[in-house]
């Protein structure tokens, strides 16, 4: 994210652009939630390895890591305000940039698929060059005994594309929000971009500085910016040190007026310029350097020289007759340029010259108020907004990578959430691993008798019954699992056990028998129930035994379990059930490998592990359902 090369450019001039604060205290910082999530996940993943990520990571370890990261800040009376981006459909100006990123990620994912397993199955769908050889997504045609043997390139790509592992966002945003609020923190969803909202908070003095990892902040007007990696705690004195970048200092060091930083950003090219270049040919119309016109970006230093040569250090570009006339002649272009200037905190420059300028808005004020309530108070997943207002949903890349996006049971679960949102048809889209193209399909949904807008009119007992009825519908393909789940009555005061019980049933019902060995099933079963009991443990994550070999089957199994948990969480969130459940309490990649390496599982050692826990009955039930498990 941000402007290519800007971070390195400013780092080389840090003495002139930043101030070293040796004892940061008694201030309020604004934190870009998405930047923080990626930073935290990457820091945590680096303490493990790519295999740990492939098995789904450990949301509890993330929870503990974040808590430990924040505690020293709280001791120095540093308050935190978290701001997150709005859902995808509210940010259409980045469509072109998102398309380029999809293609880049598709290339990385393709390389990742080549280096996952010791044995691979080539696949070349219609329309794809037959000379391209990549493994097919996991299916019944691949060998479940294929060993996971990550190549160095595959491991690197996995860390790049999957660092935000399953349930990482949910673990941070859902239960952790309560901890944040108890500690005096707040979390809100920005109406446009988190970056822009945080910039406004700095200029209005609501916060001292922004904490993030995004170079766009370095070109914002009147901005103070702290990179996440620069925050360091002295273990002896417990003081917090940080490097604070000031954009006024950057402008002065570069020989520009602070108001011209936005122009520098436009010459360099950013996430917004590809849209106006494609649809309005802005780069060509402004006679930007030919390299900038063809590639979409331009060297930071060269862009500064071009800007100073063509416009001078203080002349405003908006006063250039040609640029001014372009905006005067096209109100649509004016709206987009106004949006770019506003993003960098310079919207008043446009407004003073074009009083009629206005920004494009996807939602009305009343709709946005409702959306904020759903996201910030009800904590609904962001895809619900896309479904409600645009009837579209993007399938996450992990599901596509592991071949789960086409799983009939998970597809039925997604359709169930669309019904609860009051929709009868929704367009799902995903990125093809081989081509990078966007693939779409329309999901037809039967009208639901219980929908989000009137959910508070239904008694809790009816909502609980609705949730179970939906789950039973998803597992109808397996009569044995369906019968067992229908007869099972989860303890009322243990909603976490309900999550695990339903998810395990979904895994059993949707996994072919030849892809579910007894050792893998027992390892997953023990992991899920032990994770519940360890959720309040204050220790960090468990060591990951990377020397233990595991198979494609285990990767598929854990991914299916996590996808089932995710589907359940979406349903329960919309039904406003079990909102206090810790989503980090159900799974750990380290525990899976631990139980896998300490088998075989016997009745005696299971009893030792589960002694005195109410989950013993559930454990025995699912052992009995698996055809190859016999605890004697």
UniProtKB/TrEMBL annotation:
Stretches the record annotates as Disordered: 120-144
SUPFAM superfamilies: PIN domain-like
The XPG-I domain, residue ranges: 185-271
Superkingdom of the organism of origin: Eukaryota
Gene Ontology molecular functions: nuclease activity
Family: Belongs to the asteroid family.
PANTHER family to which the protein is assigned, alphabetical: ASTEROID PROTEIN (PTHR15665), PROTEIN ASTEROID HOMOLOG 1 (PTHR15665:SF1)
Protein name: XPG-I domain-containing protein
Lineage: Eukaryota, Sar, Stramenopiles, Oomycota, Saprolegniomycetes
């Amino acid at each position: 994210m941000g402007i290519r090369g800007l971070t390195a450019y400013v780092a080389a001039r840090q003495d002139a652009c930043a101030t070293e604060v040796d004892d940061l205290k008694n201030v309020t910082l604004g934190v870009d939630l998405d930047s923080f999530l990626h930073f935290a996940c990457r820091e945590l993943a680096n303490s493990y390895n790519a295999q740990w990520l492939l098995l789904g990571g450990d949301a509890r370890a993330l929870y503990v890591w974040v808590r430990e990261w924040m505690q020293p800040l709280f001791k120095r009376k540093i308050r935190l305000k978290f701001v997150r981006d709005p859902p995808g459909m509210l940010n259409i100006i980045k469509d072109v940039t998102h398309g380029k990123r999809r293609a880049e990620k598709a290339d990385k994912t393709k390389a990742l698929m080549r280096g996952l397993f010791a044995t691979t199955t080539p696949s070349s769908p219609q329309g794809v060059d037959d000379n391209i050889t990549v493994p097919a997504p996991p299916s019944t045609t691949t060998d479940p005994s294929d060993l996971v043997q990550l190549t160095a390139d595959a491991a690197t790509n996995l860390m790049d594309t999957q660092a935000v592992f399953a349930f990482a966002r949910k673990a941070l945003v859902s239960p952790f929000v309560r901890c944040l609020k108890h500690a005096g923190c707040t979390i809100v969803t920005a109406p446009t971009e988190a970056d822009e909202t945080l910039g406004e908070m700095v200029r209005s003095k609501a916060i001292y500085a922004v904490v993030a990892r995004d170079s766009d902040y370095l070109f914002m007007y009147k901005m103070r910016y702290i990179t996440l990696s620069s925050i360091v705690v002295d273990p002896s004195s417990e003081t917090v040190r940080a490097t604070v970048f000031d954009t006024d200092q950057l402008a002065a060091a570069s020989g520009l007026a602070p108001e011209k930083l936005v122009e520098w950003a436009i010459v360099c090219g950013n996430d917004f310029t590809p849209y106006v270049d494609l649809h309005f040919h802005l780069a060509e119309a402004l006679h930007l350097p030919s390299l900038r016109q063809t590639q979409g970006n331009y060297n930071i230093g060269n862009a500064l020289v071009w800007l100073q040569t063509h416009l001078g250090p203080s002349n405003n570009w908006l006063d250039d007759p040609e640029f001014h006339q372009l905006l005067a002649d096209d109100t649509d272009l004016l709206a987009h340029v106004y949006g770019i200037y506003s993003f960098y905190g310079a919207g008043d420059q446009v407004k003073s010259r074009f009083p009629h300028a206005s920004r494009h808005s996807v939602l009305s004020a009343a709709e946005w108020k409702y959306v904020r309530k759903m996201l910030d108070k009800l904590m609904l997943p962001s895809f619900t907004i896309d479904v409600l207002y645009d009837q579209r949903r993007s399938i996450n890349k992990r599901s596509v990578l592991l071949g789960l996006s086409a799983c009939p049971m998970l597809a039925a679960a997604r359709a169930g959430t669309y019904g609860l949102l009051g929709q009868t048809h929704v367009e799902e889209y995903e990125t093809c691993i081989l081509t990078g193209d966007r693939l779409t399909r329309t999901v037809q949904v039967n009208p639901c008798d219980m929908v989000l807008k009137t959910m508070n009119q239904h008694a809790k007992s009816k909502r609980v019954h609705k949730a179970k009825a939906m789950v039973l519908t998803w597992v109808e393909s397996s009569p044995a699992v369906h019968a067992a789940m229908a007869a099972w009555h989860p303890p009322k005061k243990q909603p976490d056990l309900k999550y695990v019980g339903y998810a395990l049933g979904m895994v059993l019902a949707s996994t072919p028998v030849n892809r579910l060995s007894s050792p893998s099933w027992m390892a997953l079963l023990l992991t899920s129930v032990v994770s519940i009991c360890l959720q309040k443990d204050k220790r960090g994550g468990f060591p990951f035994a990377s020397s233990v070999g595991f198979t494609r089957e285990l990767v598929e199994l854990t991914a299916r379990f996590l996808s089932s948990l995710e589907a359940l969480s979406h349903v329960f969130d919309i039904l406003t059930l079990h909102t206090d459940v810790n989503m980090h309490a159900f799974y750990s990649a380290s525990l899976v490998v631990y139980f896998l390496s300490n088998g075989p599982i016997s009745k005696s050692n299971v009893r030792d592990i589960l002694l005195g826990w109410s989950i013993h009955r559930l454990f025995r039930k699912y052992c009995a359902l698996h055809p190859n498990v016999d605890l004697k």
